[in-house]
Model the fold of this input.
Amino acid sequence: MDRRDKIEARLRRKKRIRKKLTGSTERPRLCVYKSLKNMYAQLVDDASGKVLTGFSTLNKEVRGEIKYGGNVESAKKSG
Done:
């Protein structure tokens, strides 16, 4: 399996999952991304195609309370 096949397989999986998941105004979709150092979360309304709000461990309110943004403790503080 070369690189192109891996990319195509990932895109097929993404399309299959996104086909089932949609966010509405009453119940927006939660997108979470975790890098090695930080966590990011967004609430998305797919009907209007807009991000309602976003949050990350880089925010000023949370940044002073945590030492490292990529662990369970920072996820609890973020939640």
Observations:
- Residues 3-20 form the longest helix (18 residues).
